[in-house]
């Protein structure tokens, strides 16, 4: 019996294999439930800034709009009251995804269903997808398990779970940014992981600068650092740029992403390139930490798991491989790992 989790994974794999039907770029990334919610929150803050001059939004308003957005996109109207400025929020939400070169799960689901790309045993109903994205289905599938009862998880187990989630999010965010440099959500997560002195102020300054110049946050950071490093005619004025205090941290970040991109560009064998990228990210994340650090152990486990997935992805496409090349770009393989 195919579980619903497996159906969702097959949905994403369908998108990855047939990406030209969805997007004009193989580097388009999938926006899962957590990223959808974050994108909505940022979009609501932008709309509030336009209407009220305040770039903030309450959690209750976010959750109310989140619930309405899911029902709206899935066509599951239930006489729900439309949130304030919803049309503007929805427009801002989809504009954010477009700028970030992302598609959310609902868009992919509707495209796959409309094109008849899913087999009968892979079919998903709008209600099921709603429950999955909202988290209700996860709670149902975990019912009766140890993880479904918070009181049964000891504090040590809770901390280990948090560290594992952080490690996986950190590794996958580096991969996501490598695949899709417009993914501002991934950048926000790893800009200061490991610590580079790039806290909230640095990210805010970077975000404002990127908005003024109408470019992605990563492109803004790269452009700024290149100007400083090359000593161009704008470098003098950069001395007064709000980003100037963050040169060291931004340079560290940009140069590390450059290092990962060099691996993609120089190593043609996807299996080798993927392994080296993961190894490089691992060493970067655990540098300066002790061997017994729980985060180091979690990163090690995450990297081993992802490395095995790369092998499985390539093995599953063995019929199209040659002795010298996988025939599949590293970007596409990295994309398979990100959900």
From TrEMBL:
Q: Name one GO biological process term.
A: DNA repair
Instruction: Determine the domain of life of the protein's source.
Output: Eukaryota
Q: Name one GO cellular component term.
A: chromatin
Molecular-function GO term, any one: DNA binding
Gene3D superfamilies, per this entry? Answer: PCRA, domain 4 (1.10.486.10)
Q: What is its main location?
A: cytoplasm
**Keywords carried by this UniProt record:** Cytoplasm, DNA damage, DNA repair, DNA-binding, Nucleus
Location relative to the cell: Cytoplasm; Nucleus
InterPro entries reported in the protein's UniProt record: P-loop_NTPase (IPR027417), PARPBP (IPR038932)
- UniProt record similarity statement: Belongs to the PARI family.
Write down what this protein is called.
PCNA-interacting partner
Q: Which organism is it from?
A: Nicator chloris
Whichever gene encodes this chain, its name is Parpbp
